[in-house]
């Protein structure tokens, strides 16, 4: 629709560096980064025209950051999120089958592992983990997210999780919503600044351990000792580089062991907390019964019968890393649909478009992990809040002149 | 309005006994009991016509029982109750100045101490306390409450709390609502059966003790030892005859020490529980947020700022002496009006006639004891529930034929 202006990387930001490491050294098959920009840009054209296509008019991309450790449910979350927008997220058509990108009508989800500057061999050689910032190219991450946000398509590298190598880049056109998910979306202050909303999936060590035991010991035959050792080995870098990002998140989904069963360490029944930062533009936290007060609620009773150990909700204001937050917590799990709709009917500020939308979304993806507990519930709710945030941003950009009520 | 039928005590109930003890023996100045009955009675007239006046047409009196120990706030409760009905409760005009009765437009409150069969001297001689059933005439209590309920005026004895003697009886005409308050309204099964609604004020031993210390030690100069001794002396009879009545109450107001201050024994800040029996005709229990589930609520937060130690509410289903009950609990006290209206706005099934009626009633009697805590709040709420119960009973008696909606 919009005509295009031609310009080069260099004209966009003179502070940028675009490393083009040799394959021999890093296994990094990176081409020159291509940037595409719509006509609305005020920047002048450059002497190095690389333009191939154009962004979708002047609607700026809304950028969402999702941080979490590997294997913590980011992809499930993304499937829930794109479902809220009505589309199905799929890998780019005709591209690298090992692409980490998911594209739906409105949303593009890119995996920040694609910004690894060191591949598996490279990390091994240098003795750094993927969690280490030195294994990641934050300059490129910043440049490309910034470009997409400004309506410019980019050629993003691909980290191949199967081979552990960096594959040839893929074209990412500016979507309505860009989700950057991975280990470090809020690590670099420049990238952080680009985020319209940020989420941190915080799985407690106890639950991580229980999940790993379940998967690696029961399903893959690893020993308890080796599982413990792998968690311990990962911990220092995780604590140094990943965990501190949660202080910047607008929403944190915290996954803890249940408190309904004393000394439970099975990790099957979870206590999940949705920590929502107050004062975030276009984001009005969900609450239970009474905004701003402190409430605990056991919905199981005369109207709702739950099986052992039941369900317990909590809501209240708290302080989280010095920020005022509102917390909604769910301990326990749903047995049936009526429990979910009952709970939904008592939550406020859900940003649903019709009564029961949360329940409908949860039912639609009943086979996704976490559908019977707070992880699925809060992922779905955060999805609705992001849709609402997106719509508010779009509406605020429209800037309709206010008409006088009087003739 | 209604013409009157003449009959005698004996024609009413042949099982009755009407003791007429001598003044010398018991100080009991009791005349023959006079019973008045409206025309609607199906009973035949008797050979001993004692009729003086008639009851108010065929509207049966609604009878409420209120049980509590002496000095536990029954009279405050009664003033709150009559205020809900719009009138002011006053002693009978031109009668014994030491009458224990309070009469308003709609309500007559009689004190069951008037049914003492033994006066102070008599109790001392026989070595029984006023709590002992042997010091009380349950046959007469039953006969007279039954008569009033059926629209028949009675001549009720008066126990003079000043002199400790039994004075000449006073005429009690059948009111719209009769409240029988005292030590034993639910003790006798026959009397209990006559009650349309019953309330037990249950002051815990810790609070009773703190109150007594406050009053008897600080204000009257009694020693701690003598206070302890008087409580201990009273306890066996209280536990044997008064306390067991709470199992029959439709509503119990339980007054306990606060849990907001660890190890508090001042008795100034109270945790008050309103225990409401389920399945009582014309009585729909008050609830907080969600009927039938379990909730704790600290209203103090972003919208409402409370001073230390704050206010905490609880609501949930429980079992009380084998009965299903709904409990609303308030711990702490109100500092200001806005706290009260805020709380009122979150309680449901209050049976108010307009928004803020509970707060209005509480403000009207801000000088009554307990106005800043759960005792005043729940007394007011029970008053509203009794008004609602009364109106439902009256409406159900009217038995208006149901009109078809279609012509």
TrEMBL record, chains A, B:
UniProt-listed GO biological process terms: reductive pentose-phosphate cycle
Enzyme class name: transferase
GO CC list: chloroplast
Location in or out of the cell: Plastid, Chloroplast
Catalytic activity: D-ribulose 5-phosphate + ATP = D-ribulose 1,5-bisphosphate + ADP + H(+)
Family: Belongs to the phosphoribulokinase family.
NCBIfam families named among the record's database cross-references: PRK07429.1
The protein's name: Phosphoribulokinase
Taxonomic source organism: Acacia crassicarpa
